[in-house]
Every structure is written in C-alpha cells, then in structure tokens.
C-alpha cells in the first residue's frame, strides 16, 4: 500500500477515533485533510469512442478535473477488454491516486484492481458496475432499473394496454451480455411488460421471449453493436413477419434502435404509417434525428454532464478527506460487496421534448439534430 494511503488510512482512523472521542465534532471536520490533499492524479478508462455517449462522458469528466488542477489520463479501449486492462495497468504504474472506470466487461477486472488496491488507489466504477472484486470503492451511475421501467411504461401507455385487448406483436432486445447494466435495463422493462404478455395482450411472434429476467442475455446484442441489432431484426422480420407487422420493439439503447430502424426501412416499414413503437436510451444525435423523423419513438436521456459532475464531486470529497456522498447502499451487490453508489435520475425524451430538454439545456445543439 502506498505511503499516501497509509497516511490517509492512519489519518482517517485517527479522525474516526477523534470523532468518536469528541462525539459532537462538526460533521464537516475533514478527517484526513492533509493526506486527502494528496489526491492529484486521476486515471479515466472509457470503453469506446464508437458510441457517442462515452466520448461525452470522458471529455466532460476530464474537463472538470483539469479545470480543478488535477492531472488526468483519459483512455478509450475501443471495446477491447485486454486493451482496457493494459491501459488501467499503465495508469496504476503512472501513479494514479484515483481510477474512474466504465468497464467493457465488468467481470474481468479483478486482478488489475487488486494491483490498484495494493497501491492504495481509490476505484470508482463509472456507469457500469464492476463485479467479482472487493476493490471497487464507489459506483456512480443512473438508475439503470428505472431506465428499463421508463421504456416499459412508455410502451404500455402508447399501446394503452390497460384498455386495449391486442394482441400486439412485440420484439424484445437486450444489451451486451458482458454489460452488467443490460440486465437492469431489461429487468426494469420486463417487469412492466411481462403481465401483459401473460394476459396475451403482447405476443412475441419470433419466440425470442426470455423465460425470466435472468434469461435476458438470450436476446442480448454483443457490444451494443448497431449492425448486430440490424441483422437480428432482419432475421426476425424475414422469418416471422412476412404476412404480419411488428407493433413494438423494446430496444434498450439508441445504438441498437438505430440498427433496428435500418432493418425496418429495408423491410418496407414507413414512419408515421406502420412504424412500430421503438424505444431507446442515451439521446444519441442519430437517434434524436430519427425521433424527429418518426423513426424512433423515444429515448431515455441520461445527462452525462451530471454523471461527470457527480464523479468529480466524489473525487473532491476524497481529496478533502471526506466520505463521498452516496444515495444507494443496497442495490449494487457485485458478488463481493454491496458497492456504495450514487444514482442519478434518467428521463424520457420524445419528439416534443427535443427542443426544451436537449437543446435548451445545451446537451445538444439544434445543428446536431438538423434543426
Ligand atoms: C450501457 C450504458 C448505456 C448504453 C450502453 C452502450 O452500459 O449505460 O448508456 O448506451 O452501455 O454503451
């Protein structure tokens, strides 16, 4: 363990003893101000530049930290887990005090995070939980289960499933099988939709109906690839919908929705006419353009600026020797511990919301989406 961590540990322990002895010490007494002040270098590890949101995430967090005088190293691993591990190893060797990691595969980082722990490095899991290791100190994300619930509830409302008999043809998709978030997205949506499937109001003609939430990966698309979703949708349309139409597609995010949209176009579906309800997530520019063109129904917007600001705040707390604020200490059990987490709230964006929620907030410009 590094000298810094030992000092921080001793100081924190001392602070705790002092706190207990004093009992009424002001809550804001920095327990380890001197040692906490040693937090100067932050390694940021993002999965890929291929998906728009991660570019925003990495650049926003780096800017927040750079402006505050931290030394930062921002790396993108282009969805290759060996590359991400190597980049994290380099950040450890370069003396990072904190690592912020959006894992490509949250199940393969245990060895490298043991190295980080041995150096006394604090690890913050960013947006995606890291599993199978006690060496994750905090998790910052949006409420992933709520993302799915919002998608499911949107479908229920748009089809008026509480009053209509149906049946409506549903095709469900899930995210990448190696992404811990994907099971939460699917579970949130499926917990809303399954009762309507059981009632026969929703029917999965292709048979791609997970038997339970745990079976979510059976409809997963590796790497969140648009092309993978497009191919899968093409197969389902060709095999099961030659004389019928899809009424609704559950897509967990925008990159999949974009591929599904391409498959619908090539199979003769017409926006505003027989186009199915199509969900998404992330407010990617391409998907917002599709929403404006009636080729996607909604997206669940996660303002990544807020996530970057939250992680920055966590790091500033650590630097001050304080415990970072969390608001969930129950949900995210990573197999070794329940990781203290801070969950931000996502929100639905439909066509009529684009100007007020995305453009007026500065998240996108009118030019980004052809307005
Ligand atoms: C998830 C993330 C989503 C989604 C996907 C693709 O883990 O929470 O925002 O876009 O990855 O990167």
TrEMBL record:
Signal peptide interval: 1-27
Database matches in InterPro entries: Bact_Solute-Bind_Prot2, ChvE-like, Peripla_BP_I, SBP_2_dom
Entry keywords, A to Z: Signal
Cellular compartment(s): Cell envelope
Location of the Periplasmic binding protein domain: 42-321
UniProt cross-references to Pfam families, sorted A to Z: Peripla_BP_4 (PF13407)
Gene Ontology molecular function, alphabetical: carbohydrate binding
Domain of life, per lineage: Bacteria
Keyword Metal-binding included in the entry's annotation: no
GO cellular component assignments: outer membrane-bounded periplasmic space
Keyword Signal among UniProt keywords: yes
Name of the protein described by the UniProt record: Sugar ABC transporter substrate-binding protein
The organism of origin for this protein: Labedella endophytica
Taxonomic lineage from the root: Bacteria, Bacillati, Actinomycetota, Actinomycetes, Micrococcales
């Amino acid at each position: 363990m590094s000298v810094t961590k030992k000092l921080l540990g001793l100081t924190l322990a001392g602070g705790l003893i002092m706190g207990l002895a004093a009992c009424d010490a002001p809550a804001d007494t920095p327990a380890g101000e001197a040692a906490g002040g040693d937090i100067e270098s932050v390694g940021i590890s993002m999965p890929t530049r291929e998906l728009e949101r991660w570019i925003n995430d990495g650049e926003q967090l780096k800017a927040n930290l750079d402006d505050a005088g931290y030394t930062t190293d921002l790396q993108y691993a282009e969805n290759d887990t060996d590359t991400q591990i190597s980049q994290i190893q380099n950040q450890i060797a370069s003396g990072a005090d904190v690592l912020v990691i959006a894992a490509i595969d949250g199940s393969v980082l245990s060895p490298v995070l043991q190295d980080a722990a041995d150096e006394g490095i604090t690890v913050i899991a960013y947006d995606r939980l890291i599993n199978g290791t006690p060496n994750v100190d905090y998790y910052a994300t949006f409420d992933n289960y709520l993302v799915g619930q919002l998608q499911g509830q949107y479908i229920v409302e748009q089809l008026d499933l509480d009053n209509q008999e149906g049946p409506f043809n549903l095709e469900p998709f899930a995210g990448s099988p190696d992404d811990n978030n994907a099971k939460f997205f699917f579970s949130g949506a499926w917990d809303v939709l399954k009762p309507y499937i059981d009632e026969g109001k929703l029917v999965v003609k292709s048979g791609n109906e997970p038997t339970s939430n745990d079976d979510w990966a059976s409809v997963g698309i590796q790497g969140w690839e648009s092309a993978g979703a497009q191919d899968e949708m093409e197969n389902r349309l060709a095999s099961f919908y030659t004389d019928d139409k899809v009424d609704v597609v559950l897509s967990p995010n925008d990159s999949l929705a974009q591929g599904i949209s391409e498959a619908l176009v090539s199979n003769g579906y017409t926006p505003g006419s027989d186009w199915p309800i199509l969900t998404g997530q992330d407010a990617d520019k391409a998907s917002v353009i599709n929403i404006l063109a009636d080729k996607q129904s909604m997206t669940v917007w996660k303002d990544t600026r807020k996530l970057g600001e939250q992680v920055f705040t966590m790091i500033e707390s650590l630097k001050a020797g304080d415990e970072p604020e969390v608001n969930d200490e129950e949900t995210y059990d990573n197999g070794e511990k329940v990781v203290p987490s801070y969950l931000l709230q996502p929100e639905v964006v439909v066509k009529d919301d684009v100007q007020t929620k995305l453009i007026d907030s500065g998240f996108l410009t009118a030019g980004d989406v052809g307005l």
